[in-house]
Amino acid sequence: MKVGIPRALLYYKYEKLWTTFFDECGIEYIISPETNKAIINDAANLAIDETCLPTKILLGHINWLKNQCDYIFIPRVEFVYRAQMCTKFMAQIDLVMNTFRGEHLKFLFYNLYKKGPKAEYKAFKKMGKYLGLKKSVYKYAYYTAKQAQVYYEMFRAQNQLQLLQQPTPQNKVLVVAHAYNIGDKFVGEPILRTLKNLGCRPIIAEYFDARECIQASKQLSRTLPWAYNQHLLGAIALYHEQVDGIVILTTFPCGPDSMVNEMIVRKIKDKPILTLTMDTQDGSAGLETRLESFVDILNFQKERPHA
Ligand code: SF4
User: Fold this and answer.
1) Tens of pLDDT along 285-294?
2) 7: CA distance to ligand 1 center in Å?
3) Predicted model pTM
């Protein structure tokens, strides 16, 4: 049996958890390639216009995988860190099944629909049983995978803190974007590359410790419902004073981001903020020009801090 993992959405959050789990269970898997032009074209053709770009990209990756594996892996996640997910994550498996109806694809998923410390294990347990695995196998695989994921996140968070705290003549720019946007070659990479080419040091908000950030997000909003937006908002609350500017990268048309980004711009008054919105259109010329102007502002502020 071979499982196909789309390199999209939750993959960028749980890569270590998933791949370690399948490795420990002895299940073969294939991961779709980095997002490329062909995948983007498929994504645009398969999705309706109202779908957000990361969900469109997911469809493009599934299209790439569909003839290469026995099962396509699409977990359904409703809660993380006791907070709610954007509704797109809850509907993902239904959306995918409907889009590919008539193609006789088989799907594998775990359904995380409860809060609580054991909820994720119970979801994996059900999937393990569905796969016909012994309890000793899926239980060991899950806890090993969970540990791998936790270490990976800790390492990444420490790395970002070092980048933030090390003195540098470069402009430090806090890049605020969901994991599946900043990690995607088509969406996030051009922004990071351009910032580096312009002599900046990008600091990735998403890579800071999620629990600390979610706690800190209460300083800016006590009512924000979405877990991943809480994570990003908390990173801004904790670290905006230590950077020279903030770049908010969002994708069209994202409901949660459209509200949260507006709130960030209203509440954070002491740093220059640039908001960039990506869609399936190609071409980075406009993007580079906007980032160049933004970096000019950062340089100007450094040279004349009281201007
Ligand atoms: S948060 Fe926005 S980009 Fe992410 S899945 Fe929901 S609508 Fe799409």
Assistant:
1) 688 999 999 9
2) 16
3) 0.95
